[in-house]
Amino acid sequence: MPKQKTHSGAKKRFRLTATGKVKFARPTKGHFLTTKPQSRKRKLRKGSYIAGKNASNIKTLLAK
Questions:
Q1: What's the total number of domains in the chain?
Q2: Stretch 34-48: mean pLDDT, rounded?
Q3: What distance in Å separates the CA atoms of residue 27 and residue 14, rounded to the nearest whole number?
């Protein structure tokens, strides 16, 4: 059986941590930043983790 290829879009958006969690960057940080409050932009700096079935689906896309 051939190897599964890594999904190109997923590898740009998600990273796996050493413990196996799926980490991603918060969206809506690209443009129109002048209309967003500074507190919201500050919260968007930190990444977040995906849990549950969504995380296992992303791990499949990453071929892990």
A1: 1
A2: 95
A3: 12
